[in-house]
C-alpha cells in the first residue's frame, strides 16, 4: 500500500496492505496477551508508559517530519502534535493510582458488595489521518493504562506515525501482543476489527459515515463502541468582544492544519454592529497566511491530505458561490509553480451566506470560512444549535451574563469562551448528536476503557435459606415487612 506525500504526490514508501486474516491474527495476539497485562499492577503499566513518552520525545524531530511528510501538516504544528502524543502517555501514567472502585453495605449480615472497575479486554482502535501521531497516543495510552490490550488501525493515508510509535512501544519492552498495529482500508480491516467476536470495545475517531459503518459492524456482537465524529463548530463574536483576540483566534482555529481539525471554526457569526470591522481585519489576517512547503519553518498552511479531500472542498465552495455566496479572498485550487503537484487550496473567506446553504451545515474540513452577521442573541443561538453535529462551539464576549446564557443555551459537548483549542488532556472531549458517543481525554476518557464488575462477597460461612425477588431472605418471616 503506497503512502503519498500530499505536498508533492511522491511515494514516500509502501506499507503492508493487511487482510481480514491479518486483523484476526492481531486480535488473537491481543487476546493472548490480555490476561497477563490486566494482572500487571497499574503502576507497573505506568512505568512502561513513561518510557514510551520519553522515547517519543527522544525521537521528536523524526516523528514530526513523518507527520509532515504523510499528512502535509506544517512542521511547526507537527512538532506540537508529537509533543502532545508524548504528553498523553505521561498524563495517563499519572492516573495509575486513581482506578478506584466502591464497597457498599449489603442487606445481609457478613457480606459486602464490591463494584470494581476492570478492563474490557481487547480494544479495537480506529483513527483518521488528521492527527496521526497524537490520535495514536490518545487511543493507546488510556487503553493500556486501564489494562486492556489494543489493535490499532491507522488511516491508510497516514500509517507511518502509528508504526513509528509502535516501534517505540516495542523498544521499551511492552510485552508482545499488548499493542498491535495493522495497516489497511477501513472497509476491510476496520470492519473486521469492529465485527470480530474477539473485540470487546471499539473506539474510533473519524467521519460520521465511518462511525455509522463501525456501529453497523459492531452491532452483530453488541460490542461496546465509543465514537468521536465530525463537527461544525459555530464561532460567535458578540459586540463587546476584544476584536483583536477574536480575529486572531478565529483565523487560527479555521486554518490550523489546513482546516482539517474536528473542532475548527467551521462557521463564523459576528454581531452586526462589529461585523464590518471584524471582516476587514479577518480578511487582512487571512491574506497574510503563507501557503507552501510544509517542511519550511515559515509556512502557515500546507496542502490538503489527498485529492478526494481537495475535490470535496472545491465542490463545496463552487456550490456556495452558485447559491449566492461572495468569495472575498481565495476560492480556487493552487496549481502554479511550487503548487504544480500536490493538493493545494487557497485560504478562502465567504460572505453573503445563509443557513439554506450546504456549506453552513456540512463539515468543510478545509481552509474555508463562511461568515455571516447576526442581530439578536436568540437568533444566533438558534443558528448555532441548528446542526446535526454537536462537538465544539466558541463564544467571544466579556459580558458574564451572556457567558452564562451561552453555558445554558449552547447545545454542544464543548464550549470555548474567549479562547480556542486544542483540548486539555485533563478535560473531556465529548460530542453530542452525530458528533459521537463516548469521548476522549481526562479521567472520564479513562472510564471509557473500564467497565464495572459487581462482586457479592459473602463470608458468613453458610448458605442462604430463601430465594426472593426483593429484600433480605426471610424478612417476612420475622414480621418486619408486610407484603400484599
Core attributes:
alpha/beta, Aldehyde Dehydrogenase, Chain A, domain 1, 14 helices, 6-stranded mixed β-sheet, 7-stranded mixed β-sheet, Aldehyde Dehydrogenase, Chain A, domain 2, 2 domains, globular, 484 residues, single chain
Short description:
The protein has 484 residues and is α/β, with parallel strands linked by helices.
The helix content, as a percent range, equals 25-40%
Please report the total strand number as a whole number: 20
Distance between the termini: 71 Å
Order of neighbouring strands in the sheet with most strands: 12-13-14-11-10-16-17
The CATH topology of the largest domain turns out to be: Aldehyde Dehydrogenase, Chain A, domain 1
What is the CATH C level class of the largest domain, in words? Alpha Beta
What would CATH call the architecture of the largest domain? 3-Layer(aba) Sandwich
Secondary-structure map:
Layout: E1 2-4, E2 11-14, H1 20-39, H2 42-58, H3 60-71, H4 75-93, E3 102-105, E4 111-119, E5 122-126, H5 134-145, E6 149-153, H6 160-171, E7 179-181, H7 186-195, E8 201-205, H8 208-219, E9 224-228, E10 233-237, H9 243-255, E11 265-271, H10 272-287, H11 307-322, E12 326-329, E13 348-351, E14 368-374, H12 377-385, E15 389-390, E16 392-396, H13 400-409, E17 414-417, E18 432-433, E19 436-437, H14 442-448, E20 450-458
Parallel strand pairs: 5-6, 5-8, 6-7, 8-9, 10-11, 10-16, 11-14, 13-14, 16-17
Antiparallel strand pairs: 1-2, 3-4, 4-20, 9-19, 12-13, 15-18
Amino acid at each position: 500500500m503506497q503512502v503519498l506525500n500530499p505536498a508533492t504526490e511522491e511515494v514516500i514508501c509502501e506499507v503492508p496492505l493487511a487482510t481480514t486474516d491479518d486483523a484476526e491474527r492481531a486480535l488473537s495476539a491481543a487476546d493472548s496477551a490480555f490476561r497477563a497485562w490486566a494482572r500487571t499492577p497499574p503502576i507497573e503499566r505506568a512505568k512502561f508508559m513513561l518510557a514510551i513518552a520519553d522515547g517519543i520525545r527522544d525521537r521528536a524531530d523524526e516523528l514530526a517530519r513523518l507527520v509532515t511528510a504523510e499528512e502535509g501538516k506544517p512542521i511547526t504544528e507537527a512538532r506540537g502534535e508529537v509533543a502532545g502524543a508524548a504528553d498523553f502517555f505521561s498524563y495517563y501514567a499519572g492516573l495509575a493510582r486513581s482506578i478506584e472502585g466502591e464497597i457498599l453495605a449489603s442487606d445481609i449480615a457478613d457480606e459486602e458488595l464490591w463494584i470494581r472497575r476492570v478492563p474490557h479486554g481487547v480494544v479495537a482502535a480506529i483513527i483518521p489521518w488528521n492527527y496521526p501521531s497524537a490520535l495514536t497516543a490518545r487511543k493507546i495510552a488510556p487503553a493500556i493504562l486501564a489494562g486492556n490490550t489494543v489493535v490499532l488501525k491507522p488511516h491508510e493515508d497516514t500509517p507511518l506515525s502509528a508504526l513509528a510509535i509502535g516501534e517505540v512501544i516495542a523498544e521499551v519492552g511492552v510485552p508482545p501482543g499488548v499493542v498491535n498495529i495493522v495497516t489497511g482500508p477501513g472497509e476491510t480491516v476496520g470492519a473486521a476489527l469492529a465485527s470480530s467476536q474477539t473485540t470487546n470495545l471499539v473506539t474510533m475517531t473519524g467521519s460520521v459515515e465511518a462511525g455509522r459503518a463501525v456501529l453497523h459492524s459492531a452491532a452483530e456482537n453488541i460490542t461496546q463502541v465509543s465514537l468521536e465524529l465530525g463537527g461544525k463548530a459555530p464561532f460567535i463574536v458578540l459586540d463587546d468582544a476584544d476584536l483583536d483576540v477574536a480575529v486572531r483566534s478565529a483565523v487560527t482555529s479555521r486554518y490550523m492544519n489546513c482546516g482539517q481539525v474536528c473542532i475548527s471554526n467551521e462557521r463564523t457569526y459576528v454581531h452586526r454592529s462589529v461585523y464590518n470591522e471584524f471582516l476587514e481585519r479577518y480578511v487582512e489576517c487571512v491574506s497574510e497566511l503563507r501557503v507552501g512547503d510544509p517542511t519550511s519553518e515559515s509556512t502557515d498552511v500546507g496542502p490538503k491530505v489527498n485529492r478526494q479531500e481537495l475535490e470535496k472542498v472545491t465542490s463545496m465552495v463552487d456550490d456556495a458561490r452558485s447559491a449566492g455566496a461572495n468569495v472575498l479572498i481565495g476560492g480556487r485550487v493552487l496549481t502554479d509553480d511550487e503548487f504544480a503537484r500536490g493538493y493545494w487550496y487557497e485560504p478562502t473567506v465567504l460572505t453573503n451566506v445563509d443557513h439554506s446553504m450546504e456549506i453552513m451545515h456540512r463539515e468543510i474540513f478545509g481552509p474555508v470560512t463562511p461568515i455571516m452577521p447576526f442581530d439578536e442573541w436568540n437568533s444566533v443561538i438558534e443558528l448555532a444549535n441548528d446542526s446535526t453535529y454537536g462537538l465544539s462551539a466558541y463564544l467571544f464576549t466579556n459580558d458574564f451574563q451572556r457567558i452564562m446564557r451561552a453555558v445554558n443555551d449552547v447545545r454542544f459537548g464543548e464550549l470555548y469562551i474567549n479562547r480556542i483549542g486544542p483540548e486539555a488532556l485533563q478535560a473531556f472531549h465529548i460530542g453530542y448528536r452525530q458528533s459521537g458517543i463516548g469521548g476522549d481525554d481526562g479521567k472520564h476518557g479513562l472510564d471509557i476503557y473500564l467497565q464495572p464488575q459487581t462482586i457479592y462477597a459473602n463470608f458468613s460461612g453458610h448458605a442462604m435459606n430463601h430465594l426472593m425477588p426483593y429484600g433480605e431472605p426471610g424478612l417476612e418471616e420475622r414480621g418486619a415487612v408486610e407484603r400484599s
